[in-house]
From TrEMBL:
Region (Disordered): 1-23
Localization of this protein: Cell membrane
Main location per the UniProt record: membrane
Transmembrane segments: 28-47, 53-73, 114-133, 139-159, 179-204, 210-230, 242-261, 276-296, 308-329, 341-362, 383-406, 485-503, 533-551, 563-587, 594-614, 655-678
Entries under InterPro entries matching the protein: CstA, CstA_N
The organism's place on the tree of life at top rank: Bacteria
Entry's family note: Belongs to the peptide transporter carbon starvation (CstA) (TC 2.A.114) family.
Residue ranges occupied by any CstA N-terminal domain in the UniProt entry: 55-612
Topology relative to the membrane: Multi-pass membrane protein
Protein name: Carbon starvation protein (CstA)
Gene Ontology biological process terms, A to Z: cellular response to starvation
Keywords for this protein: Cell membrane, Membrane, Transmembrane, Transmembrane helix, Transport
GO cellular component: plasma membrane
């Protein structure tokens, strides 16, 4: 059925703005108040001069900014720039096969998408960036998500939905050209394997020898399977009903995990790292091949309750306890660039370190992977793409607060490596005092005792620091100091749950990406539900990240540990690919005047990532430059000297190899991204100078039979539309009238 050119997209582009009339005085008052709250928060943060201020002001600044960004900027992009069309059928509706393509209630899909994109980054990145002080990271987290990260996620989701859910790499090949597309395919797939292996390593480290965590997280799988069958077979469409049951079972699993840890079953659920790797690879494969409604979507939805619920309670705890920010607004490390947590100047490394809380290339893989194959209506890209990313950014804000309310001396003792602070509380106290943040050996010992840990020294990676801050806030509200240990270990388990959902969804996305790529050679792979292709591609993806993970677990200097330093830059380079593809598509689809929406964040991201890449390749500082580090350790080998952290000559050779591999890959990734950018610029110039030559791979319009709300909460108009179609709040295909 052909769509009249002037009635569908253009009519809906006017959308609610055209039908709702001018805003009411009440609405104006509400949004003015929201704006004032945000402005007041920013004012307090900006004007503080050395004194400690309440973390609640940081909360106010972020929440006020998020609300304004979602209400006005996201709406502008959806209806004026993208011109979302509620009359247009999505791939989930047209290609519904019950496996990969499946129209999914937007509340469940929001949960899946948020759980899939919110991994380790928003929890640990801001914690590490707190080395520079709370202000630089907070500004980037909030401004970055509103103008870059959430925009990337929503626009990528929109364009992928218009192309049958094509992967980012395939869209680059189809729309930019074979040269830039090939570079994008190689870069995207290689970076994705590294990202998945890094995320999996964080989970393994968190769950090793933790019966509570293993049991509780393991139980989310059968609970999710039950929820999937409940919604599909037993009680279709009863999302609220199954949500209540699922959350109750999840809370029971968490409490039972504590019982298991204290019982005779503890040994059964106390797993070594190698065993966890095997189980994770097996789970990743199964989650990738099972129908999406059966395991992946309900498990991610279930996890979202745990994630968002815990973070929301943490925010409430901040408002009740009113902890103060003990970390300075800006530390000396921001200008000196010699911080003990990570080396490098504030620009560009604070932006690289935070990554997922503000702008993450990994998100574009999900936005062009599972989500566009499940979305009911184009109008939902705003709440799912933009809204889910704002939610993740809020997680990053809470992580920043958690890191900055503990004593700075404790922060640096926890996050500095042994080579910097030593291995005893006495040497750590002396080293941290040298940084300008005094803390006594007794205070360091007491902090560990409070959370029932033998030591907190050099617990690097960010996760333990987040858990410390979380225990500080929760214990101030519930239980007092005696509950600190409980909340600390609860937070560690929570972080593992947070990250695991990214690995299973990421594996499925990788399968889609590999099938898209192989489809250029063998057409059968184009069908992402073709069983041989599904199994082969899934095996290759889990085999890729599983190999690096296995070697990394066996060898502290090998496997993914070798590639870990590339995580931040690789993730941001991936964002450059996504933003380049989105900008090219805006230009090619006749939206040149709006190309700045993705073009400006693209320019910023390119400046940040290529500067970081340049410094990592050419810097003479051994703490920053890969090749400088290689030369230092090679010189040590030549002089037959063992340099820390290596403990033997064999490890010296491994350090040299790792630094060389990281340096070469940094060069390769940077070159591939530059090729993508140049080819994208060529394509845009051609589209502007010769519009008649433009060819888009967009699927032709077809009419949608699905009725569903655009947001999580249906408007009065949408409720009336659902009622007229004989549907509940979840939406679906309009029911045929009874004769």
């Amino acid at each position: 059925m052909a769509k009249p050119e002037a009635t569908g997209t253009e009519r809906d582009a006017a959308g609610p703005d055209a039908t709702q009339g001018p805003p009411s005085p009440r609405s104006i008052a509400v949004w003015v108040l929201v704006g004032l709250v945000g402005a007041l928060g920013w004012g307090v943060l900006a004007l503080s001069r050395g004194e400690e201020i309440s973390a609640a002001w940081l909360l106010a600044a972020a929440l006020g900014s998020y609300a304004i960004g979602y209400r006005f900027y996201a709406r502008f992009i959806a209806h004026r720039v993208l011109k979302v069309d509620k009359t247009r059928a999505t791939p989930a509706e047209r290609l519904d096969n019950g496996v990969d393509f499946h129209p999914t209630d937007r509340r469940v899909l929001f949960g899946h998408h948020f759980a899939a994109v919110a991994g380790a980054g928003p929890l640990v990145g801001p914690v590490l960036a707190a080395q520079m002080g709370y202000l630089p990271g907070t500004i980037w987290i909030v401004a970055g998500v509103i103008f870059a990260g959430a925009v990337q996620d929503m626009v990528t989701l929109f364009f992928s939905t218009r192309r049958d859910g094509r992967s980012l790499g395939q869209m680059a090949r189809d729309e930019i050209g074979p040269v830039g597309g090939a570079a994008a395919l190689v870069a995207v797939f290689a970076i994705m394997i590294i990202l998945l292996a890094v995320l999996a390593l964080v989970i393994v480290n968190a769950l090793a020898h933790s019966p509570w965590g293993v049991f509780s997280i393991g139980m989310t799988i059968p609970i999710a399977l039950f929820m999937g069958f409940y919604l599909r077979v037993l009680r279709p469409g009863r999302v609220t009903e199954v949500s209540v049951i699922g959350v109750a079972l999840l809370l029971l699993a968490i409490v039972a995990g504590g019982w298991v840890a204290e019982s005779s079953l503890a040994g059964t659920f106390t797993l070594e790292k190698e065993t966890l790797v095997v189980w994770m690879v097996a789970y990743g494969f199964v989650a990738s091949v099972l129908p999406v409604w059966m395991l992946l979507a309900p498990r991610d939805y279930l996890s979202t309750f745990m994630k968002v619920g815990t973070i929301a309670l943490l925010a409430v705890g901040v408002v009740i306890a009113m902890p103060t920010l003990k970390m300075p607004a800006v530390t000396e490390f921001a200008t000196r660039g010699d911080g003990p947590v990570f080396a490098g100047s504030m620009f560009p490394f604070v932006f690289i370190t935070i990554a997922c809380g503000a702008l993450s290339g990994f998100h574009s893989l999900v936005s062009s992977g599972t989500t566009p194959k499940m979305i009911q209506k184009e109008t939902q890209v705003r709440v799912i793409g933009y809204g889910a990313m704002l939610t993740e950014s809020f997680v990053a804000i809470m992580a920043m607060i958690a890191a900055c309310i503990i004593e700075p001396g404790l922060f640096f003792a926890v996050n500095s490596p042994p080579g910097v602070i030593g291995t005893t509380v006495e040497t750590a106290s002396q080293a941290v005092t040298g940084f300008g943040f005094a803390i006594s050996p007794d205070a360091l010992a007491q902090a560990a005792k409070d959370v029932e840990e033998a030591s907190l020294l050099s617990r690097t990676g960010g996760a333990p620091t987040f858990a410390l801050g979380m225990s500080e806030i929760f214990s101030a509200v519930i239980g007092g100091a005696g509950m600190k240990a409980f909340w600390y270990h609860f937070a560690i388990m929570f972080e593992a749950l947070f990250i695991l959902t990214t690995v299973d969804a990421g594996t499925r996305v990788g399968r889609f990406m590999l099938q898209d790529t192989l489809g250029n050679v063998h057409k059968s792979f184009k069908d992402v539900s073709w069983k041989p292709g599904v199994w082969l591609a899934s095996a290759v993806v889990v085999g890729g990240w599983g190999y690096f993970l296995w070697v990394g677990v066996k060898d502290p200097l090998g496997g993914i540990n070798q590639l870990f330093p590339l995580f931040g830059i690789a993730n941001q380079l991936l964002a450059a690919v996504a933003l380049a593809v989105c900008t090219t598509l805006l230009v090619k689809s006749g939206r040149l005047k709006w190309a700045w929406v993705t073009g400006v964040p693209l320019a910023w991201d390119v400046a940040v990532t290529l500067t970081a890449s340049y410094q990592k390749i050419f810097s003479s500082d051994v703490k920053v430059g890969f090749f400088a580090q290689r030369d230092k350790y090679q010189a040590g080998i030549d002089a037959e000297k063992v340099l820390p952290p290596a403990k033997s000559m064999a490890e010296m050779h491994t350090v040299v190899t790792n630094a060389t591999v990281d340096g070469v890959l940094s060069v390769l990734f940077a070159v591939l991204i530059v090729i993508v950018l140049l080819d994208a610029a060529r394509t845009c110039f051609k589209a502007i100078s010769a519009p008649e030559s433009v060819k888009l791979s967009e699927v032709p319009w077809s009419e949608s039979k699905i009725v569903a709300p655009a947001g999580l909460i249906a408007t009065a108009e949408e409720r009336a539309e659902l009622a007229a179609a004989g549907l509940d709040s979840g939406g679906g295909r309009a029911k045929e009238p009874v004769a």
